[in-house]
């Protein structure tokens, strides 16, 4: 017996388009757009924007968990005193301490051992937090399942308790409401208030260095120096600037000045990290594969630099050339400028298989080494990161933490719909 099914020709196509639109919706969301949906988090959202932390988070592509403080808790001391009297630069560092470089669902939090786990925050990447004071220790009370977050220093006076899960976008962003503004241990408020103002003239600093005239001229002519100076706020920037001799040593087939303006801009951005790294931090860098400003324009995993310590000096490998840091041109938080022995040539532009082509924004270049996401110091295969658990009353997640499975199922369903459509 043959059973016939009537399927409208438009249904599979409509459903397929819906899947495509829904899968891309999460990619367009950022922290402030998410927080804008919650009236009790408007003050925290405003602080993120005014301190430039929001723009830093928009550019990040790694999974994060944000600890948001509701309006009622920000309006009482000591949080109200700090937010009123601290300058944006210092307040920005406190807010960066509320951005965990790890994705936590409520299920993940319930499996944290009572002894706690150490998790890196965005503050730690600025090199303005000594030792591990830019990390937080997350503990769970096994009797009540309450989650406490505080400095890794024993008996730290600053701590916060998780109130609820505000939003979860699987394996991308989680926003937790906490009952207090966290202050990093040994955070010198007086020093922070007298931090030198931003606004370094990068071109002038290079000219004063007496050996970077070519780089200064290229930066000024391209206009990207204005973008670099705009990025001095927030987490800061680190520039690797080739000496005049490095430009003279370029191979004959490499003609930087004849590159189209867009490619020339990308090559210049390839010399800049979107974080402040003094020399000591470069020498002891944990994750050698570092994204650059060019990475932000062309997609995760592309235009990265491999930074390591070789023969007592900092080496920078692009996949085509290996340069070394020869001198410190300028180093004052939040800007570091280092002279390097060679022009950093990205393989995406000058590699044998590149044909001068660059990846389109959002698409990694095929064949490049994808940078692993920054995570907490805890092992990825630790037992507390896996296993079933349920959210208690008062806690909610907007989406379940099975995004990868959902995307796979969506693709299968879409293919089945297309197959049914072709059979009709």
UniProtKB/TrEMBL annotation:
It is a lipid-anchor; GPI-anchor. This is FAS1 domain-containing protein. The keyword NADP does not apply. SMART domains: FAS1. Keywords: Cell membrane, Glycoprotein, GPI-anchor, Lipoprotein, Membrane, Proteoglycan, Signal. It comes from Gossypium raimondii (Peruvian cotton). Residues 28-182, 199-344 form the FAS1 domain. The keyword Cell inner membrane does not apply.
């Amino acid at each position: 017996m043959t059973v016939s099914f009537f399927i409208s020709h438009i249904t599979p196509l409509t459903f397929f388009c819906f899947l495509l639109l829904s899968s891309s919706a999460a990619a367009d969301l950022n922290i402030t757009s998410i927080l804008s949906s919650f009236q009790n988090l408007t003050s925290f959202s405003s602080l993120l924007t005014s301190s430039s932390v929001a723009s830093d988070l928009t550019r990040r592509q790694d999974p994060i968990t944000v600890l948001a403080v509701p309006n009622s808790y920000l309006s009482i001391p000591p949080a109200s005193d700090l937010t009123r009297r601290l300058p944006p630069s210092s307040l920005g560092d406190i807010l960066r301490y509320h951005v965990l470089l790890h994705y936590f669902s409520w299920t993940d939090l319930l499996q944290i051992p009572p002894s706690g786990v150490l998790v890196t925050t965005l503050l730690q990447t600025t090199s303005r937090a000594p030792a591990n004071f830019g990390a937080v220790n997350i503990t769970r009370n096994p009797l009540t399942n309450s989650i406490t977050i505080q400095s890794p220093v024993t008996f730290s006076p600053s701590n916060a308790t998780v109130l609820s899960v505000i939003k979860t976008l699987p394996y991308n962003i989680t926003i937790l409401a906490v009952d207090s503004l966290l202050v990093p241990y040994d955070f010198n408020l007086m020093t922070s208030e007298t931090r030198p103002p931003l606004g370094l003239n990068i071109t002038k600093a290079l000219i004063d260095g007496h050996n970077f005239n070519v780089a200064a001229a290229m930066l000024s002519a391209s206009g990207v120096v204005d973008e670099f100076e705009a990025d001095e706020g927030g987490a800061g920037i680190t520039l690797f600037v080739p000496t005049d001799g490095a430009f003279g040593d370029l191979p004959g087939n490499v003609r930087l000045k004849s590159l189209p303006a867009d490619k020339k801009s990308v090559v210049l951005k390839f010399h800049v990290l979107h974080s402040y790294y003094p020399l000591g931090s470069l020498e002891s860098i944990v994750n050698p594969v570092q994204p650059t400003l060019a990475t932000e324009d062309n997609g995760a995993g592309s235009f990265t630099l491999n930074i390591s310590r070789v023969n007592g000096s900092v080496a920078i490998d692009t996949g085509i050339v290996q340069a070394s840091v020869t001198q410190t041109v300028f180093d004052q938080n939040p800007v570091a400028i280092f002279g390097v022995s060679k022009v950093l040539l990205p393989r995406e532009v000058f590699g044998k298989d590149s044909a001068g082509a660059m990846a389109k924004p959002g698409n990694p270049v095929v064949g490049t080494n994808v940078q692993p996401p920054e995570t907490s110091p805890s092992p990825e295969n630790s037992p507390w990161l896996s296993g079933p658990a349920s959210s208690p009353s008062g806690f909610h997640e907007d989406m379940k933490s099975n995004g990868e499975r959902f995307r796979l199922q969506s693709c299968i369903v879409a293919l089945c719909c297309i197959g049914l459509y072709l059979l009709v």
